[in-house]
Design goal:
Distance between the termini: 80 Å
Strand order of the largest sheet: 3-4-5-6-7
CATH topology of one domain: Nuclear Transport Factor 2, Chain: A
Number of strands: 7
CATH superfamily of one domain: VirB8 protein
CATH class of one domain: Alpha Beta
CATH architecture of one domain: Roll
Helix content: 25-40%
Order of helices and strands: HEEHEHHEEEE
Structural class: alpha+beta
Radius of gyration: 30 Å
Number of helices: 4
């Protein structure tokens, strides 16, 4: 066989092997969901009596089973994540999007907050000039929360970029106060206001 063909086949096989290896490494490095392994141990004791020798023999059987259950997210982390996500979505809007920010945030709202949001939409706060506000959360502080509670208050520090018409964007640091309620094991926003 021609040396060039053999070299070409070896190089192609090497490249293919390298590609498979890279894909395998990427697949194995994917983060696994956090799980908690709980071990249940059952012990059964059986007494067997033999009458010919008048001896008693005890047999112990041990059965071990492992069940894997997802770890529940810590309430403080869940509150922080909900407040962060809601504030960035609810606080980012444009006059061109027709309150899309509110609609995209509804799944994070309690019924009470959803009704407050409907009032904002019904008021139709429209302006003649194009306005765009982009909110980026810079910090979340739990101001009122106790472990096991079903309510919490947080303050969220936000960096906002505001553009009006063709003018250059302006930047400001603002704070929002949110109250959250635990509804069916999910933290939802019950009220929101800029301070």
């Amino acid at each position: 066989m021609n040396k060039k063909i053999i070299i070409g086949i070896v190089i192609a096989a090497g490249v293919l092997l390298l590609a498979v290896l890279i894909l395998l490494i990427i697949a194995l490095r994917q983060p696994q969901p956090a799980t908690d392994t709980q071990t249940n141990e059952t012990t059964t004791t059986t007494d067997v009596t033999t009458t010919t020798n008048s001896t008693t023999t005890s047999t112990t059987d041990t059965t071990t089973t492992e069940t894997t259950q997802p770890v529940e997210q810590d309430d403080r982390q869940a509150i922080t994540a909900a407040a962060r996500s809601f504030t960035e979505r609810f606080g980012s809007y444009s006059t061109d999007t027709n309150f899309e920010n509110i609609e995209l945030s509804r799944y994070l709202m309690t019924e009470s907050m959803s009704k407050q949001s409907d009032k904002i939409i019904d008021a139709g706060q429209t302006t003649a000039k194009f306005t765009s506000v982009t909110s980026a959360v810079t910090g979340v502080t739990l101001t009122d929360f106790a472990d096991g509670a079903t309510g919490a208050t947080v303050e969220v520090a936000v960096r906002q970029k505001t553009t009006v018409g063709q003018a250059d964007a302006t930047y400001s640091n603002v704070t929002a106060r949110l109250t959250l309620k635990k509804v069916s094991n999910t933290w939802k926003i019950d009220s929101f206001r800029w301070l």
